[in-house]
Amino acid sequence: MSNSYDVIVIGGGFLGLSSAYELAKNSSRVLLLESGDIGSGTSASCSGRAQVCEGHLDPLNIRMIVDGLDRFNGLEDELGTTFDWRKSGILLIIRTQDSWNHWKERETILTAAGIPTQVIDRVALQEAEPNMNTSGLLGAVYAIEGMLNPLKFSLAYADAARRSGADIKGNSRVTGFEINHGRITAVKTINRTYYCDKVAVMTGAWVPEITRMVNVDLPIRHTHAEAIVTEPIPKMIFNNVEISDFYETIHGKQRAVAIGVHPDLHGSIDITEAVTKTDSYERHVSAWGITSLSKELIELYPFLNRVRVVRSWGRPTCFTPDEEPIIGWLPQIDNMYVAASLVETITVIPLLSEWMANTIQGQNPPFSLEQFSPNRYVNGWQWE
Ligand SMILES: Cc1cc2nc3c(=O)[nH]c(=O)nc-3n(C[C@H](O)[C@H](O)[C@H](O)COP(=O)(O)OP(=O)(O)OC[C@H]3O[C@@H](n4cnc5c(N)ncnc54)[C@H](O)[C@@H]3O)c2cc1C
């Protein structure tokens, strides 16, 4: 039957597209349903960093970062197109003694684990970024991370998935399911019903909306993150720059700015994030967000006060109570797989999508993903 598939993937962001590719590459008949355009949720609007040193330090996360970065070697050739993959320095600004002490400990652990990381003082920070206003800063964490163009990365996976035989359908919002004896038998959009053996829900911040359609409540919330991009300027910022205490800065607050500055290949500067806690899904920016973001930006790089902002946007970014991803089969529905809320998303995508495809196809991935299973929330959960 032309509308019958081995796996239906819901969501056309990094997770859904890369999984659709890996599944189709391994001979599954795959349909991907995306409610808008490819990448139009959060993925294509992100900063494109393949982060290396900001995540959890448990063995699985470390493994996913180290091997995940390796997996990028040759990936542009494999997917058949460029997505502007390159290496970049990252400086995580240290503003407090607590953060300095915390990162001195992490520096040792990360470096020993194969992720070279160095805490540098204010003088070295000023040398690395001569145009930065470093007054009041203690120093920074320095490492080398990856960078890519997130829209090209999304489209590269979509095209490669199509070439491998997957059907990718945009403007196809999933509205419901047919269930028989605890198994999904069909996925419904407004106009059509598609039949399947398995379903992979990879709708990012919208995962709870989908699982509620089968009466499963998952603890995934989101914040609204606002960002801006400037006109191209001559090279005056040399590294990606973030704050070292991102989570502490936004934690427990209704609104906060966690400044991040990322020069792109063509001279524009991508600037993130003004963060607001919310239950709604918005794409616009607020007067508060853009003003606060600009204020912190100009404090850090005063010369930017004469540079024009050419575009601004907001997107949801999701999190769980323990800030670990949710990845695995839903305990309540036999054949529904869920994946959302990764920590260092881009870094792990090429590797993790292989492992998730293995699991969905009934094989064992090289490393168990059990620690991310939704089973951990079966008896409820507590938000801090
Ligand atoms: C400003 C900003 C900067 C960021 N920078 C980085 C960064 O530098 N590096 C990094 O690794 N991460 C970054 N992130 C986080 C990263 O963007 C996300 O982790 C990632 O995009 C999540 O991918 P996803 O596939 O899970 O979700 P999404 O990209 O949101 O994809 C889910 C898709 O599901 C679709 N969908 C929703 N409901 C339905 C439905 N009913 N039917 C069909 N489709 C549906 C949505 O339209 C969406 O396209 C950033 C986030 C923000 C907001």
Spell out the blueprint of helices and strands.
Elements: E1 4-10, H1 14-25, E2 30-33, E3 49-50, H2 59-71, H3 75-79, E4 86-94, H4 97-112, E5 118-121, H5 122-128, E6 139-147, H6 150-163, E7 167-169, E8 174-180, E9 183-189, E10 193-201, H7 207-212, E11 221-230, E12 240-243, H8 246-250, E13 255-263, E14 269-277, H9 287-300, E15 309-319, E16 326-329, E17 336-340, H10 345-360
Parallel strand pairs: 1-2, 1-10, 2-7, 4-12, 10-17
Antiparallel strand pairs: 3-6, 4-6, 5-6, 8-9, 9-10, 11-14, 11-15, 13-14, 16-17
Helix pairs in contact: 1-6, 1-10, 2-10
Descriptors for this entry?
384 residues, alpha/beta, FAD/NAD(P)-binding domain, D-Amino Acid Oxidase, Chain A, domain 2, 2 domains, eight-stranded mixed β-sheet, five-stranded mixed β-sheet, 29% strand, binds flavin-adenine dinucleotide
Q: Supply Rg.
A: 21 Å
Instruction: Note the gap between the termini.
Output: 48 Å
| Count of DSSP H/I helices | 10
Bound molecules: flavin-adenine dinucleotide
Q: Which regions have little confidence, pLDDT < 50, spanning 5+ residues?
A: none
What's the number of structural domains?
A: 2
